[in-house]
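Collaborator request, handled under Task 6.
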Amino acid sequence: MSRTIKIFDTTLRDGEQSPGCSMNLNEKIEVAKQLEALKVDIIEAGFAAASPGDAAAIAAIADTVRGATICSLARSVDKDIEAAYNAIRRAESARIHTFIATSPVHMEYKLKMTPDEVIESIAHSVSYAKSFCSDVEFSAEDATRTDLDFLCRVVETAIKAGATTINIPDTVGYMIPEEYAARIKYLREHTTGIENIVLSCHMHNDLGMATALSLAGVENGAGQIECTINGIGERAGNASMEECVMALKTRADHFGIGCNIETTQIYRASRMIQTITGVAVAPTKAIVGANAFAHEAGIHQHGVMANKETYEIMTPESVGIPKNAIVLGKHSGRHAFEERLHELGYTLDKEKLEKAFEKFKILADKKKVIKDRDLEGLIGAVPVSGEERYILDRFVINSGNTITSTAVIRVRKGDETFERAAASDGPINASFQAINKIVGKDIELEDYSLRALTDGEDAQSEAIVKIRVGGGDELVTGRGVSVDVIEASIKAYINGINKYFND
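Structure tokens returned to the collaborator:
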């Protein structure tokens, strides 16, 4: 490879800004650990000045993760920069990422600042960030709608002030690849000192070209791609990490550019984000979608059986997708269970392993055989969000098309049990109403979805709920898995409530 680019992951910052993708502290730490396993170069852990919760999460990640630079976003405002530094200061490697808008529309209507005032702000904020941290990144927000010559002035100012990385983001997903390539090339040819810093690409997917734009940027001299797992992010999302990385790897003959990502961890990272956020990827999603390596057409099937290279440009194993094997049943012991999890790429601490094994035994009593996808669903059902305040004990449902549905739900809370009944127009809604009575909170169900997680007559169902508790602003995502769709739904609702209390 002629050069190696840096992968800057912003799943925990820009990704979390996607509607319904908020995460609590424990979930953020779990994601950060997975990004560490991926060997991401920089983890943008959040926006410290946004809230005390964000600052605490960044600090916790800085304390936990090793091997990656931990970064916090900050506006070009002194208090933001101070908050960012306080959050990342204990990191093994730390970066402050400061930004200000530079396009005419943003300067006039949002900032109400002149171009000269923006330049002055850049010089001050980058210099101020540099006084705290040697690694400073500057972003020219809405750079792709910024006058090119003014953008050169912006970049040169940031360089002189001490920036080590400069981001040229397509904030609103406006560019096409050829335009962006020309913009990067122009900057490199007309900006003094640009050879001494790393140019970065942060692309949004409003026109479906975020990955192509990122690749166009690095082809023309950018040294960093900013991206998210599964491409989650505001509006249509960000550049997808898995797409950018596997494009560089698969077409190394063309790009001649490498990166440090451990690609066998990609699938697990994708599954984790889906589990935590409740946002599933489309079956046709490149690299990690359910159909990414599926071949239905007879001519394709024949070709793949003869030689995989006929229709596969990469292998499922290269991104960590496990082979679907029937390996476990109700007589399988703890050792066999743990060993298979290791083979699938999961390493659990003692407490989580114990919880997972308990769930495995319950599942094994209901299913004849346990497949790898069953195990993935089971691991996803093990809470990463702290203590389970409420635990489902049992439920009784009475329902039919000629009667009002009733539900009796009993849950455990510590050493106590609580049981309530409710009636409604369906068994699931009746169950939720009964739980509301137990919890004693005003809980609104904002979204509900149900899908088959595995195949066959005894397939596991996955229920995803998004709830709002006590009229608050924040949506909480709950997830439940069971071979019974009503039980999966009840577990998802209780999981969401537990996450609310653990936040």
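The cover message to the collaborator said: "The first strand starts at residue 3 and ends at 4. Residues 76 and 121 are 7 Å apart (CA to CA). Please let us know whether this matches your experimental observations."
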